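User: Sequence in, structure out. Go.
Assistant: Echoing your sequence, followed by the structure tokens.
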Amino acid sequence: MFTGIVEELGEITAVETLDDACRFRLRGPVVTEGAKHGDSIAVNGVCLTVVDHEGDEFTADVMAETLNRSSLGALKAGSRVNLERPMAVGERLGGHIVQGHVDGTGEILERKPSENWEIVKISLPADLTRYVVEKGSITVDGISLTVVDAGPDYFTVSLIPTTLDLTTLGHKQPGDPVNLEVDVIAKYVERMLGDRVPGDRERGATR
């Protein structure tokens, strides 16, 4: 489990294309400290497994399903990425509960800079709109953010200078893709309430 608090801005140093997958080599001095084979590291919000680790670099395999459902397929050598290690038991939950399981991708539609922060408008896939609410949490490229405005096919977030300086959202421009993970609690609530059919209470039905 992650919290959406990015630890460092890493870099893709090499991409090896496989038959139905690819292997990334990534540089990240912070997240590789003490890393070992089998550890998890979130890369732009996608939970990947460390295959090999040497110095300040590690490799991770990305299967076709992940490439198809996320923006990782667009990465190349030199791409900057957000990196985060899993939360250790007993640590503070600085952001919100993030699984590292991307629900879909959005696209940066607009950026509105101001003196102390920047408003970013991001497209939202139709099947995810019901999980996104004003002042709720959403993960964008692995960053835990608060929704400012939730529209029918978009949402906006407000970024402080620290987020702009230390994450990919400080560099991405309109048209660039981003990984989205909605609040998992909303999905569980929907699943639990989904078995209830309107009118059951009036009919005295149970399920």
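User: And one key feature?
Assistant: Residues 184-194 form the longest helix (11 residues).
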